[in-house]
Specification:
alpha+beta, single chain, 18 helices, five-stranded mixed sheet
Length: 487
């Protein structure tokens, strides 16, 4: 190759990307993008966006950007040009148009640690199929007949271990409850058994990596999490092989599908890899979010004695009616009577915002309220910003479960209820609405039932929930309990 040819080749290799970049910029210059900043090259504004802040707020970053640019603004987050939405209408529009105009798009590091077949990262038909499996297993009938008794059993197992006047982490206790419950439902693992405790230990390491910086180097939390993921998957696969052997021998034919693993093996055509990722993702989703929600409820209620008193009255009425009828266990009819409890659950989810924002990307050029959202751009619907919007919720940073009652404090009750339902999205919405939402509410209600009937509690050290952006209590929410049988 001559020097001239080499020079021309080098010139072409440099000029072509520049021409493409210029065309992209020209195209975007003709668009009416929302106002905003793009921040530093590559990093953009990611560091500021992810800076920890109180979970009952949207943080300084969001407040400043909304104040300066409005509820819809552009940024550069997670290495991509991004439209951030704190607008309730746009958030609903995004979620309702999943698979048409927008698509789930989490960072690659999430898929790398949860697995490419995880429900969190799957899109299209495969996500629909996986979600259908989960919905079938978590059907209304199974909630009533299988899951409710198990939720009661695991709640009592945790609460009965609480010693009088002892101090412990309420957050850890909530995690113990939800992990044991999910391990039982997914793989029929019994709490306290060596294999269950070993799995829990690996899972804790795994979770630390899920919420850490994706640095795959020796000694980092992310690398340790990948190693724990491998150990967990080997454990699940071993359980799978045991079930398959029994199934081939006819040992499971006459058995009920008491856990997810057995149900999937008998009623689906998923590959081994798909089943492994499904089980891991459901263990993650079913354990982490519910445990945080229960810890938040304990925290908010401790500061609202009037709500605790009204809860106690509601659950005492249920308990006394059961004694009179000679029944012992909670029934589905009892659960449906917990009306104020549902108000407390809704307010906890609204104010605590376990899931603060979602990752989406535009599949086509979209125009909304005069703004253009270019195809391929990341879109972040910020659920927390809507839940904490003072134009939608009176005194949004105040824990007020009574706002969810039919005689709500904002004008006409029916219009208030409709507006609230439209703006309240703790479990997402559209085709990707959380498959475990009803189980999560059931867990919270049963836990609250036994908590208020058997204990008084108080915080022993100042602590509050922070968004990292995952919600966590830095000190573990230390509480002291006093046993009191209110029944």
């Amino acid at each position: 190759m001559s020097d001239l040819e080499f020079f021309l080749l080098l010139l072409a290799s440099i000029s072509v990307p520049l021409v493409i970049l210029n065309l992209i910029k020209r195209k975007q210059s003709g668009l009416n993008l929302p106002p905003g900043n793009t921040g530093w090259p590559f990093l953009g504004e990611t560091i500021g966006y992810l800076k920890p802040y109180s979970a009952t707020s949207v943080g300084d970053f969001m407040e400043q950007h909304i104040s300066r640019f409005g509820e819809i603004y552009k940024s550069n987050l997670f290495g991509e040009p991004t439209i951030v939405s704190a607008d309730s209408g746009l958030n609903r529009f995004i979620l309702q148009n999943e698979g048409k105009l927008f698509e789930c798009s989490y960072p690659r590091s999430i898929g790398g640690i949860l697995g490419k077949w995880s429900m969190l990262v799957l899109v299209g038909d495969m996500h629909r199929d996986m979600r259908t499996i989960s919905l079938n297993f978590l059907s209304h009938g199974r909630l009533r007949t299988h899951l409710l008794p198990e939720v009661v059993k695991h709640t009592l197992l945790v609460l009965s271990s609480w010693k009088e006047n002892c101090t412990f982490s309420a957050q850890d206790e909530a995690k113990k409850f939800t992990f044991n419950l999910m391990a039982k439902h997914i793989m029929s693992l019994d709490p306290g058994k060596p294999e269950t405790e070993q799995l829990k230990k690996e899972y804790v390491t795994f979770m630390k990596g899920v919420v850490s910086a994706p640095l795959n180097f020796p000694g980092t939390a992310y690398r340790k999490a990948l190693q724990s993921r491998s150990t967990i998957l080997k454990f699940i696969e071993l359980k799978m092989e045991e079930r398959i052997q029994k199934l081939r021998g006819g040992g499971l034919e006459n058995m009920e599908d008491d856990d997810l693993l057995g149900w999937v093996l008998k009623h689906s055509n998923l590959s081994t890899e798909q089943i492994l990722d499904l089980v891991l993702s459901l263990l993650f989703a079913g354990h982490e979010t519910s445990s945080v929600a229960i810890a938040l409820a304990i925290y908010f209620l401790e500061g609202c004695p009037n709500a605790v008193q009204q809860l106690r009255e509601e659950h005492l009425e249920i308990s006394r009616a059961k004694k009179q009828s000679g029944e012992l266990e909670l029934s589905w009819e009892d659960y449906k009577k917990m009306e104020f409890t549902q108000c407390v659950i809704s307010e906890t989810l609204r104010l605590g915002n376990v899931v603060r924002f979602l990752h989406r990307k535009a599949l086509k050029d979209v125009r909304y309220k005069g703004y253009d959202i270019p195809c391929g751009w990341k879109v972040l619907p910020v659920i927390a910003a809507v839940h904490l919007d003072p134009s939608l919720f009176d005194q949004p940073q105040h824990f007020n479960p009574w706002r969810w009652q039919n005689n709500g404090n904002r004008g006409n009750s029916s219009s208030w209820s409709t507006a609230t339902n439209q703006n309240f999205m703790p479990f997402g919405g559209g085709p990707r609405l959380c498959a475990g939402s009803e189980l999560a509410k059931l867990e919270m209600a049963v836990f609250i039932h036994h908590l208020v009937l058997n204990y008084n509690w108080e915080l022993v050290d100042k602590d509050q929930a922070f968004a990292f952006p995952f919600v966590d209590f830095p000190k573990g929410l230390p509480i002291r309990v006093r046993h009191h049988n209110f029944t």
